[in-house]
Amino acid sequence: MKMNRRDALHHIVGISGVAVGASLLPNSVIAMETGYIIQPGEKLRYVPLDPMTVAKLAYNTGNGCMYQVFHSVIYSLGQSNSVDAEKFRTIPTALAAYGWAGVMGQGTICGNLNALAMLVNILDDVNGQQSALVDAMYRFFERETLPYSHKEFIDGIGSTDDKTLEVGQSSIANSITCHSSISNWSKASGKSFSQKKERCYRLSASVVHKLVELLNAAHNGADIAQLTGLTITEETAQCQTCHSTSKPLAPASSVKTNMECTTCHTGHFF
To answer: How far is CA 182 from CA 69, 101, 114, 191, in A?
Structure first.
């Protein structure tokens, strides 16, 4: 018996639905069935989510920090009452799996931050605060003692006190890079990179929890910049008085960044 593509897909849906539930089908199958593909510049409507529920999903997802963050929020929106829920379900979240350990082990931008920027960029109903949300989350990652270590959070994501011993000490990254984040944690905890699994699982859960809190606030009309107060430090602002995008005649001064400068550069004032 011959089947066309649509019949074949319905056959797959039927088998998968019996086995695990149709809602768990890979997004690639859903995208093939609906024919919908998100386009550059398109925004999908956000609805408030429960921070702890999404954080728990991130913690239990695995496959690297970037995937944990991106998949947990996209999946949750796909199961939500958003008018774009079906569209969220077509997004192939597996593409985010490349971001582990700072982009396939390169130690560059932390996958948690890579993921949240990719996510925030496609969200609507956050009152045009995409840049403010990314800025606040990046400053949060630089300055907060992470991962969260309080008992309510550990219980909420479904971890245990025994696993807390694997984490050791939480730490401050003072940077948006995986390199600095892991190095400072290793120094604080006395553990090596190879022992980071539980720490990084909890880090992704912590980032997702904060992200959903801020997304909910933005959706409800809060001014994220004023709400968090998380902007560049006074030291970085001082650097930007000379080093900025408006210095075309001085190549050494023409830069674009909001990340902490003194993590890697010593100050110099004339």
So the answer is: 18, 9, 16, 10
